[in-house]
Structure formats: C-alpha cells, structure tokens
Design brief:
With 371 residues, the protein is mainly alpha-helical. Helix content is 69%, strand content 0%. The longest helix has 18 residues.
Length: 371
C-alpha cells in the first residue's frame, strides 16, 4: 500500500476529443432507447476501441454496462452477442467468449467479425487446428488480405514462419490496397513474424510502419497498447532502454506500458520507486494469485522489475494455463532459468516440440534450459 495518502497512484486520461464526444452522444441516445441493441452495441464498441488504445480497465466495465439489459440472455441480438464475446476476450474469459461467438455463427454463418475473433482466441489458446479452420472459412467471406493475414498468424506459430513472413511482405508491397486499420494489423503481424525468424532489422522497420499507419488513421487515432508493448519489448530485448522510453514518452498510463517503462528505467540504472510502488499496488491481487486476468503482467513485473523469479515462475505458469502466445512462453522459460527450475518449464517445452514454433529466442531459451 502507498505510504503517503497524498501520493498520486494514477492519472486518468482526459475525457475530451472526438471519441468521448461520440460516446456522449451514444449514451444520450441509449438513455432515450435503453433496449436499442444497435445503439448499445455501438457504444460498447466505442468503449472497447478506447480500451485498446488506452488500456484502462474501467472502459471494459463501461462496455459491459452498455449491454446490461441483455446480461442474462442466452441468445441476445447478434451485435450484442458479438460485443459480449469481445468483452469476455479482453478479460481472458475465453470459454464465455467462444460460447457467444459460436451462437453468433450458428445464426449468421457469414459473420466475418465473429469468425475472426474466434480464430484469434483459438490462436491465443494454442488451438491451431481450430484457428486454421476459421481462417480458411474467411476466404469466401472477407477481403483476401484479411483471410491471408489470419492464416499467416497461425503459420507463424506452427513451423511456417518464413513462408508466412514472405506472404505478409507481399501484402504490404501494395500500399494503396490496404486501408490504414488493416495495414496496422498486418505490419504488426509482420514485425512479430520477422522477429520470430531473427530478421531484427526487418522487424523494427515493420514496427515503425505500424506506428505510422496507426497515426494515419485519422484525428484522435493512435497506436494500440498491444503495438506499443510489443515494440517496447523488442527494444528492451535488444538492450535499447533509452529507445523504449522514447517510444513510450507520451503513452497512456496502462499497466502493460508502465511495466515496460519500469524495466527500461531499471536497465538504465534509475529505478523510479514511486512507479514500482504504484505497480505493486495495482497488481497485488494478480501477484497473490487471486486475479488470473493480469497474471501475465504479474509475472512480467515479478521477473523483470522485482527480481523475484520464484514468484514469476508461479504467475507465469498460471498465465500459461490461460493464454499461450510467445510472450507467455518467454515468461515461463526465463522464469525457469532465473529460478533454476528447468523442470517447471516442461509445459512450454512440450508446446514448443508439438507446435513446431520457430521463434529463435524461444529456441535459444530452450537450449539454455537443457544445458
């Protein structure tokens, strides 16, 4: 807990600008028509878009509130079910999200958003066959670039990273063919795939291109917390903490980004005690194992900021039970190395062997654990 009651733990972003004006207008409409599914779904979508840009958990709660009239309905209007699934996805309640998405697809087999969200969740859960199937079904429903990028994300995790990267670079070779929002996604995916195969220079170029595309989407648009965290991790792994701090200088006060700032400051030898104390306070439930939603952040904090590898090992394994992306595997493997508990990394080592994942840094960690 903070030692001084006057200590500022958090400064919320100002609620001004185009996004909040649109939200205010939608809230007024919903107050007049509280059972309007289209208005409620659009309001929830606006909150979720802000959440992806700012990382503020309250925004997810606001999105849930907009859908309150349909909270207990098994088969709400399609747009409500889609937003409920996206909210559950953001909170890592993947079973709930999948249930809503499958009901959406039963009623509307041509729903691109439902199939793309389903493929994304299956990918995070390392159910690659299921994710691949949903991507394949998008071929007849969506833009070829969407279906191709979806499939490339799966290929990048299942032994075809080189081919996936070549495909993504061909997509990106035609600037006018991709709208900015789609370009941000594909540039980010290309950056992560290039990083996976060890093409560091190419990875950085794609990260920068993704940032530029995000800035080009329009007034008020900005990079997502996901993109900023991924690029910051890339810089931190390259031992470029000053560049990571420059990247995050004007970033929103989201926990994932505050964690990267704390690691960069630590690498530079200038730990900010107030920042560390604030993060400890915000992540305490996750550190204690009482909040699985933020287990990834708790493991990251314990390992890279607090230097508590035993705690990081526990939280990273708890997180691995929920989501299985490269960052989650890296947390388990690096925690196992730091804690000298190679045997505890077995779930991730088994996954590496079964999936055919080619990420060079994960393979290096695997070799170190085996030596």
């Amino acid at each position: 807990m903070p030692s001084d009651s006057r200590q500022v733990l958090e400064r919320l972003p100002p609620r001004t600008g185009r996004e909040w004006q649109a939200i205010a207008s939608l809230r007024a409409e919903l107050a007049r028509e509280p059972r309007s599914a289209p208005i409620a779904a659009e309001l929830a979508q606006r909150y979720l878009e802000l959440f992806r840009a700012e990382g503020e958990p309250r925004l997810v709660a606001y999105a849930q509130s907009a859908l309150a009239p349909w909270r207990d309905e098994r088969d709400p209007p399609l747009e409500i079910a889609q937003r409920r699934a996206e909210i559950a996805q953001s909170e890592h309640r993947f079973d709930d999200a999948l249930a809503d998405l499958k009901r959406v697809i039963e009623r509307d087999p041509r729903s691109v958003s439902a199939r793309l969200t389903l493929a994304s969740i299956d990918l995070v859960r390392a159910d690659y066959d299921a994710s691949r199937r949903e991507c394949a079904r998008l071929v007849l429903l969506a833009d070829a670039a969407v279906a191709g990028a979806c499939s490339s994300a799966v290929r990048a995790m299942t032994g075809e990273a080189g081919g996936a990267y070549q495909y993504l670079t061909r997509l990106l070779a035609e600037p006018e063919a991709l709208p900015p929002e789609l370009r941000v996604w594909i540039e980010t995916l290309a950056a992560e795939t290039a990083e996976a195969i060890g093409a560091w220079h190419n990875a950085e170029a794609h990260y920068r291109a993704a940032l530029a595309a995000a800035s080009a989407m329009g007034e008020g648009d900005r990079p997502s917390v996901y993109l900023l965290a991924a690029y910051a991790d890339f810089l931190l792994r390259a031992h470029r903490p000053a560049d990571a701090l420059a990247l995050l200088k004007d970033a929103p006060p989201a926990d994932p980004l505050a964690l990267r700032i704390a690691v960069a400051e630590k690498q530079l030898g200038r730990v900010d005690a107030a920042r560390v104390e604030s993060l400890s306070y915000r992540l305490q439930l996750a550190l204690d194992g009482l909040d699985s939603t933020h287990a990834r952040e708790a493991a990251y904090f314990a390992l890279y900021v607090l230097d508590k590898p035993e705690l990081a090992m526990k939280r990273s394994l708890a997180n691995w039970n929920v989501q299985r992306e490269p960052i989650d595997a890296r947390l388990v493997l690096e925690s196992a190395l730091a804690a000298h508990r190679a045997a505890d990394a077995r779930p991730v080592l088994d996954w590496l062997a079964a999936s055919g994942c080619e990420h060079v840094d994960l393979q290096q960690l695997e070799r170190r654990l085996g030596s």
